[in-house]
Task: structure prediction
Amino acid sequence: MRISIEKTALLREREKTTGRPRQRLPDWLRAPLPGGGRYAEIKTRLRERGLHTVCEEAQCPNIGECWNAGTATLMLMGDTCTRACRFCAIASNPRPPALDADEPRKAAEQVALMALDYVVVTSVNRDDLPDGGAGHFAATIRAIRARNPGTLIEVLTPDFQGVFAHIAQVVDALPDVFAHNVETVESLTPQLRDRRATFAQSLRVLAHAKAHRPEVITKSSLMLGVGETEVEVLTALQALRDHGVDAVTLGQYLRPSPWHHEVVRFVPPEEFADWQARATALGFRFCASGPLVRSSYRAGELYLRGLIEQHSPAPAGPHA
Result:
């Protein structure tokens, strides 16, 4: 993992002053180490083309399972983010390297080489760019569609600082799913997310996408175990539904390093199962909820694929 100089200094200082032992993971959070022929093959192909995946950069515990099943989430615009969220393992720097103008073609080629029928495309935040990278997203969607007409495309985007024109630019490229994560409940957003991100702004991003292209499925995700209350999670889920969100995922937060926000609680599997039932009762058309679930975990799950193919997302709620 690469982290910024500022994060490194804070990490060392915290290790000196706290001396806290590393938290032991419960049995239900133990994932096998990544390996296998398909995993190695995909990793080699990504490196050869200079592509990055959120699977690696975010230290996803499901990387072996997903890659060996032939699924990978491609990360656009490099591996350095202009924001420094306290839950995320991705490197941060206010001046990341320039975009690779050939990246949309490379991404389309990678999807073809992996023979994917469902691909998730995400990115770091690029607040240094005039459009936040919206044009790059749109170009990548179109390139993948042209090279792989049968592939379903999900995008997991930044907030583009809430600029409607930039959100519309991505949605007009017609991804099958437009995802943007609120990440946590509203009260904890200032502690976990960069100061430029707010809960209300993320809701507006999702509402704008749904209002602009109602046929596109909208999706978001929540991390649990960071200090949220039951009422706060329920309130967040209801807010997502009120803003027209069709699908939601809930998973356990895992701390990447001592610099990052601590894990307050390991949520047991039965509670995740209960949240899945409650989300369904609230009207979400799809919910994946479990300790190791991530926002793009099993993105090609049959039920979500069915929603895309039907083009019949749930009715949108009122927009803020």
